[in-house]
From TrEMBL:
Protein task: Catalyzes the attachment of glycine to tRNA(Gly).
Gene name as annotated: glyQS
SUPFAM superfamilies for this protein: Class II aaRS ABD-related (SSF52954), Class II aaRS and biotin synthetases (SSF55681)
Protein name (database record): Glycine--tRNA ligase
Positions of ATP binding: R222, N223, E224, F232, R233, M234, R235, E236, F237, G354, A355, D356, R357
Domain Aminoacyl-transfer RNA synthetases class-II family profile: 126-392
Keywords on record: Aminoacyl-tRNA synthetase, ATP-binding, Cytoplasm, Ligase, Nucleotide-binding, Protein biosynthesis
Keyword Protein biosynthesis applies: yes
Length: 494
């Protein structure tokens, strides 16, 4: 059994659509760029990933609780957070192709090219210079750097570039019946601010003591000009964020702790260590004093999947200044001098992972093409090697044939398992084809009901990854399968 060559993003996109994981949004009207719908299997996989994240945060930590804040927020929220004035991407157009690009992504692509050519130091120097120019808001310098590096438009093949301009990514709309400027609000570009404005509500109502965290899963919206790479960069997406409130001066220790904790989570859900890495930011966001990405090796290269940021007291302090409402915590713990720490605005360490990016990483990693058999019987086998707890269906029950009571027996077994984990029943086509159907959507276990079942109440369990089969009593199925598909298996590995 041999692994086939690496698959392309096109393979992933095709499989996702054909087997009910992801569809282009509004496809009957030719779709809407960078917007996708999750199909019947995709929504199950995504929900399972969200459940694993949620439990890892709120169930494994006594000092982390969850909220669900509204998408619409008072517009001053985004003034305080810096999004109104500074939530921009540097854009550049090619005059010949009329195509628009993010200037930083063009330079990052050149740096990746240098690294692939064995000139890693040259690529690192380029990213450092780009970070310096962007931090100084020297957009003319960014354009000059693109020209100096002889970066050309992939469509026109020319370097006939416009000036670099900043483009704000927030969607705006009006609330109420009159479209006046005073009624302007925004679709939230991140979920973090819903946590910050509820800091005191949660702290006081939950009697939370620092350090403590607030977790949230929710939709966010960004008007991405260059949206690409399937569900990696979308205009409507879902974030899983946790803001961890801490005493000033302890942020770097907590930052390192959460870096390692989040990496352990990704390994626990089945992403291999060799496809994960930390990438320190070359240019820090306006709110951060330290930032790192956890990157996954997608078919299009290593890209950000999760960010861990030390946000200092930027958010709470700005909300305090603009709202005139104190965002402080009284810390009764004693310092090294035996005195209470007293009132302060907490610092924050943030972990923020895109649910859609995590879905894509999990799907890409699970997509497996192998050659099986020997001699004239060699053939390709495709299956999704998902962690059993994440698979859309945990088990499929398949009667060998539809006669002699086997179908009724199989249906009864399926019904008995449904209350414990997601179960499907299939009696169409030859059983080999039914195994293949389940492999293609990642079902870890198939139960075959045959004539022996009618005699001794045993069935055959087929294991997806190895295709090995074992005989098991029907009475043992819930416990045997239930143990392996439980989300606890992920939580235990964190």
């Amino acid at each position: 059994m041999n692994q086939a060559p690496a698959t392309s993003l096109q393979d992933i996109v095709g499989h996702a659509k054909e087997y009910g994981f992801v569809f282009p949004s509004s496809e009957i009207y030719d779709g809407l760029q960078a917007v996708y719908d999750y199909g019947q299997n995709g929504v199950e996989l995504k929900n399972n990933l969200k459940a694993a994240w949620w439990k890892a945060m709120t169930q494994l930590h006594d000092n982390i609780v969850g909220i669900d804040a509204a998408i619409f927020m008072h517009p001053l929220t985004w003034k305080a957070s810096g999004h109104v004035d500074g939530f921009n991407d540097p854009m550049i157009d090619n005059k010949d192709s009329k195509k628009r690009y993010r200037a930083d992504q063009l330079l990052e692509g050149k740096a990746e090219q240098y690294e692939a050519e064995g000139q890693a130091e040259k690529g690192k120097a380029l990213l450092t210079e780009m970070g310096r120019l962007l931090s100084a808001e020297d957009l003319a310098g960014v354009r000059e750097l693109i020209i100096a590096e002889n970066i050309k438009c992939p469509v026109s093949g020319t370097a006939n570039w416009t000036e670099v301009r900043q483009f704000n990514l927030m969607f705006s709309t009006q609330v109420g019946s009159v479209a006046e400027e005073s009624n302007l609000i925004y679709l939230r570009p991140e979920t973090a601010q819903g946590i910050f404005v509820n800091f005191l509500n949660v702290q006081k109502s939950g009697r939370m003591k620092i350090p403590f965290g607030i977790a949230q899963i929710g939709k966010a919206f960004r008007n991405e000009i260059v949206a690409r790479q399937f569900t990696f960069r979308m205009r409507e997406f879902e974030q899983m964020e946790m803001q961890f409130f801490i005493r000033p001066g302890t942020e770097m220790a907590w930052y390192e702790s959460w870096k390692e904790a989040r990496m352990k989570f990704h390994k626990a859900i089945g992403l291999p260590a060799e496809k994960l890495k930390f990438h320190d930011h070359d240019k820090l966001a306006h709110y951060a004093n330290a930032a790192v990405d956890i990157e996954y090796q997608f078919p299009f290269g290593f890209r950000e999947m999760e960010g861990i940021h030390s946000r200092t007291d930027f958010d709470l302090r700005n909300h305090q200044e603009l709202s005139k409402k104190k965002q402080q915590y009284f810390d009764s713990d004693l310092d090294e001098n035996g005195k209470p720490y007293g009132n302060y605005i907490p610092y924050v360490v943030e972990t923020s992972v895109g649910a859609d990016r995590l879905f894509l990483a999990t799907f890409c990693n699970a997509y497996t093409v192998e050659t099986v058999g020997e001699g004239d019987n060699v053939k390709e086998r495709t299956y999704l090697k998902l962690h059993p707890a994440l698979a859309p269906f945990k088990v499929a029950v398949l009667p060998l044939v539809k006669k002699d009571g086997l179908a009724e027996k199989a249906q009864a077994i399926a019904n008995s398992l449904k209350s414990s984990f997601r179960t499907t029943y299939d009696d169409g086509a030859a059983i080999g084809k039914r195994y293949t159907r389940q492999d293609l959507i990642g079902t870890p276990f198939c139960i075959a009901v045959d004539y022996q079942t009618m005699e001794d109440d045993t069935v055959t369990i087929r294991h997806r990854d190895t295709m090995e089969q074992e005989r098991v009593a029907i009475s043992d199925l819930k416990e045997k399968i239930g143990y392996q598909v439980a989300i606890e298996r992920i939580l235990e590995a964190i």
